[in-house]
Amino acid sequence: MQLRYRTRVQSFWCQLANALSIRKKGDIECIADDLIIEILRKLPAEDVFKCRRVCRRWRALTSSPQFIEEHLNTGCRSILLLQYPLERHLKFYFIDEKLKRKNTMSWSISTKYMPASRMAQVVDSCHGLLLFRCGYPNSNFFVCNPVTQEALILRQPYPEGSVIGIFFHSPTKEYRLLYTHHIQGNQNEFFIARIGSGTTYSWRRLGTTFGHKYFCTPPLIIGKCLYWIVSCYTIHPCADSILEFNIDSEEFKALPHPGTGCYFGGRCQITKFFSKMERDGAALCFVYDDKILVWVLKDHTKWSSWEKMYEVNLWALKKDLHMKIYCQFKIGNIENKELLILVSAENGLLIRYNLETKTIRKIRIRKCNDVLSSQFVVIIDYAKSLVSLKDLCAPHRKRSCEN
């Protein structure tokens, strides 16, 4: 990593020096800030973070909110494979499909983050921040940024509840967390907390609604709303299988999922996954024993505009991949009409399945088969960022993660 970082920076500066005929030592100081920003903005987040060590000027230029936002918007998204810790270690595998390589990060988890008897489970991600809960139920959870190696510990308002998402609130430039607590009867209490307000965080009660206890995470953001799928292990009708939260009005609404024929024994039993489609689109994937049905939301302003667009034959897929009859499928995003599928089996595979041509493209990552075959792997659509938890909430309790 260090050698690659130096090579990239040297290459950029050599090109710049030749273009501006810079030869004398010290003349680099006369280069305009805008030009330096333009060069550093093209580097990956982890390399920019290392460039901050060069001098105070570079640190100041790359730490401004404007630079961090521009770098996030122009940076490439990657696939994040996160392996649950077995011996109190979190392993992150950032996979760039275009470069066909992986970048691995491993953290040692302090007992302050996670009790010895529990595993940290990823809940959601937003702007490079990852939200974890320490098993269920537990009194603590934490938010971290793998690039800046920072983490923030937060305490739940109730010991038996669940944090279910993190999102960015544009008007206030804050990150906000949602938490649900099941109370007596068929009701849930919801709470919200802010990160970035400059004061010690506190939970604010939103109200009581929607009586289902478990929700599948991470949620999907469509416009100004967050959506969760109610867990198939919860007894509920299909008409109440999706939870909507409006970021502006802070109101909840229960919605039906598209399609029929999945209601058995008093509950909606088919496993479902939300998928990001292309850049701003949304898809809902129903995983059956023999097929995957892909529904696409045609109009973001109309929930009734879901349309069944594609079908994946799992029996044919297993045959083409030479997989055993029993294997697990985890669904990722959809890009260029290709659905990302993680096949967890004895020899795990990460593939792109073209929904129109029904062809398979394997994502070959060297020395990654042991990770792909693990049942403790979560797949997330992720963007690396320079968002600093220390800068967001200086009064908050922050700890640096150990490498």
Describe this structure in words.
Mean pLDDT is 77; it is low at 1-6 and 396-403. The protein is 17% helix and 42% strand. The chain has 403 residues and is α+β, with helices and mostly antiparallel strands. It has 8 helices and 27 strands. It has helices at 2-20, 33-40, 45-51, 56-63, 65-74, 314-321, 369-372, 389-392; strands at 78-83, 89-96, 101-108, 120-126, 129-134, 140-145, 150-155, 162-169, 174-183, 187-195, 204-209, 215-222, 225-230, 242-246, 252-255, 263-264, 267-268, 271-277, 281-287, 291-297, 306-313, 328-335, 338-344, 349-354, 360-362, 377-382, 398-400. It has a 5-stranded antiparallel β-sheet, with no helix packed on it. It is globular.
In short:
17% of the residues lie in helices and 42% in strands.
Instruction: Sum up the overall morphology in one term.
Output: globular
**Number of continuous helical runs:** 8
Radius of gyration: 22 Å
DSSP strand content = 35-45%
Count of extended strands: 27
List the strand order in the largest sheet: 4-5-6-7-27
Unreliable runs, pLDDT <50, ≥5 residues?
1-6, 396-403
